[in-house]
Amino acid sequence: MSAAIASEKIKHYPVLLNELISIISPQNGGTFIDCTFGQGGYSNKILQFPKTKVIAFDRDEKSIPYAKNLKDKFKSRFIFYNKKFSQISEIENKNNIKGIIFDLGFSYSQIKDSSKGLSFNDTGRLNMKMGLNNFSAHDVISILNQENLESIFKHFGEEQKSKIISKKIVQERKKNVINTEDLVRIINQSKKNYSKIEKSTKIFQALRMFVNKEISELINGLVKASKLIEINGIIALVTFHSIEDKICKNFFSGLSSYESISRYIPEKKKDKLSFEIINKKPITASSEEMKKNFPSRSAKLRAIIKKSNNSFDTDFIFKKFQKLLNIEKLSSKL
Ligand SMILES: C[S@@+](CC[C@H](N)C(=O)[O-])C[C@H]1O[C@@H](n2cnc3c(N)ncnc32)[C@H](O)[C@@H]1O
Fold first, then answer.
1. Which is the closest atom of ligand 1 to the Cα of 37?
2. How far is the CA of 18 from the centre of ligand 1 (A)?
3. Which of 44, 212, 254, 309 is spaced 20 to 30 Å from 11 by Cα?
4. Number of neighbours of residue 302 by Cβ within 10 angstroms
């Protein structure tokens, strides 16, 4: 696909681009892994620096034409995998990884793609698959029992009306198939006096996270990134909602504390931590960016640097979020 054809598509504006670039310093060269390629906003910017290479991942096959454009331009300096970022350790050359970046969630073009059904303005069969999925939101809403739906809405969406919404879904699906517009109607009927944020936001977020197994993807992606990154390399992550940010914050603070060093290491060797947090408080978008790029209003950028090859433990993050990981396992019923 040519650049001209690609640019006819809906453009995604990369969030916190300058802030991210100043943290990962591509001007010094090296290999960078872009875990969430999208339309390639971050990858393209990194490749402008001559001594860089980018290995990019995206689960959505609609990223492929954008990746082809970069491949034509940058040849052997760029590789793209239509894979999930939980698979980053499958890359061939694991040396000299200077930066691993994640820009979580969905792109502007994905939310505007009605075939994906990620927006509550869409109509028709529920979907929400970002790519490489085993089941859709239609399967979740049609098959899981009330208790399971309530648990997904409550824990992934932090939705206060989870019980009543899941009850209404189960009642209504006995009579009719629940399409996207029906789900929006059920939510609106259950949340009469709520107006602050769009009433459907939390339920749609919960379903999207469940369908795309976003919790285990993020945890496994971060754990693998922590093992792949070389000394003085940086892992940087842009999150868009509180659960993603909580996972990232906990993982980074766990890695940069003494508890993350294996307890089998003798006391005297516990002198050097493996990681250091770069920015204690997350970096957020400037008011100018928020005006120009609406999704940036909820973006938070956190970063960590690897300081030594001392052994470190990552089991703590699976334990900490075990409850959410167990809820994801409800998908085995589909
Ligand atoms: C916010 S967009 C990234 C935009 C990108 N930074 C750019 O500048 O165009 C997030 C992208 O991550 C992808 N994605 C989400 N979860 C993923 C996963 N687990 N593995 C691979 N890609 C994923 C989505 O398909 C989407 O294209």
1. 5
2. 18
3. 212
4. 24
